[in-house]
Amino acid sequence: MAKTNWTLDLGGAPSNEDCAQIGHTPNFAIVNTAEAMLYRAALIGVAGSPPAGISLRIKANAHDFGTYRTVEASVDDEQDDGSHASYLETLETGFAFWHHAGFAPPEFAKLTASDQLAGFVLDAVASALRITRPTSTGAFFPESSGPIHRNLNAAFPEAAQRAFSEGSLPC
Predict the structure, then answer these.
(1) pLDDT band at 165, cuts 50/70/90?
(2) CA dihedral sign, ordered 32, 58, 96, 65
(3) pTM (predicted TM-score)
(4) Could you tell me the residue range of the domain that residue 158 belongs to?
């Protein structure tokens, strides 16, 4: 069987959120990159880390008015263990608002330089971990916070350490 690699563009932000616009958003390149990086993290929160044969990356897309970035799933069908279809369906369905993935609405206006991106994303994931954390009894409210919290905790251990280290900010 021939090797089949293909990609699926997942967009750059939740479907019902305002997103960065080329020619309108100040610091568009930085804001759009941050938006795509956060959307990738939020998709992992909702769907879990990609199974073998799927990777999620930020893709630059050329447009007449400039370059914009989206999240892209790269798929190697030869590594499909049977989980690809349901994982990709969850990714493609996405979610409408940041809070559906446990994220507070991002404050992109804070970003002024590309060297702030990694810390910005780390802080946003740490905040999502605090937002989705279990109650003192170990229960999650709402219940949908449980899988999101576990997925983010597993995929972003540095954010988890930041979220729950002594002296960290409460949510």
Answers:
(1) confident
(2) positive
(3) 0.93
(4) 5-164
